[in-house]
Every structure is written in C-alpha cells, then in structure tokens.
Design a protein that fits this description.
Strand 2 and strand 3 form a beta hairpin. The protein has helices at residues 15-33, 58-66, and strands at residues 3-9, 37-42, 48-54, 76-82. The chain is globular, with a radius of gyration of 15 Å. By secondary structure, it is α+β, with helices and mostly antiparallel strands. A four-stranded antiparallel β-sheet has the order 2-3-1-4. The longest helix has 19 residues, at 15-33. Helix content is 29%, strand content 28%. The chain has one domain (3-82): Alpha-Beta Plaits, CATH 3.30.70.1060.
Amino acid sequence: MPSYLFQLELPPMTEEMLSVIPKHREHINSLFADGKLLSYSVSSNSNMIWCVVECDNERAAMDMILKLPLYQYFTDIACHPLLFHNTQAAALPGLSLN
C-alpha cells in the first residue's frame, strides 16, 4: 500500500489550540492502532508536524489529514508520495525463561 509523508505547519501555539491537543492525541493514537499512521513527529517549537500515513491513494491520505482535530489550525500542508518508508522496530525487552 502506498505511503505519504505529510509536512504540516502550525502557527504559534494558543490556548485554544492547546485545548484541542488531547482530542488530537487520541485521534493520532487511534490511527496508529489501526495501522494507518506509520510515524508522527513534532518539532521542538511545535510549529511543524511530520507524519507518514499509509492509504490506498493520495486523496484518501489527504482525507485522513483533513479529519485531524488540529486541521483547522494548519497554515500549510505538503504531501509527498513515498517510494518506500523504512523504520526500525521498537526495541522490546529481552525475554527471560527463568
């Protein structure tokens, strides 16, 4: 299935935006659980978000971004279709047979 890298730009954080973050995080966690969101990163000054989504096509990927609770605050959205997206699996603690 194709993957798409999104670069989402945000204005300086306001109290109104902060109030939406819990709902936004819940939505992001749901997308991860469904396997639709492959990665999600926020810049240290909170003005940029980068995420990789997996969808059937670019329109479906954009529709997913349009449903993000913070969408109304995005000042710019850039979508980049990816040839592939590699990630390192999260390290799990070693198993102990004792």
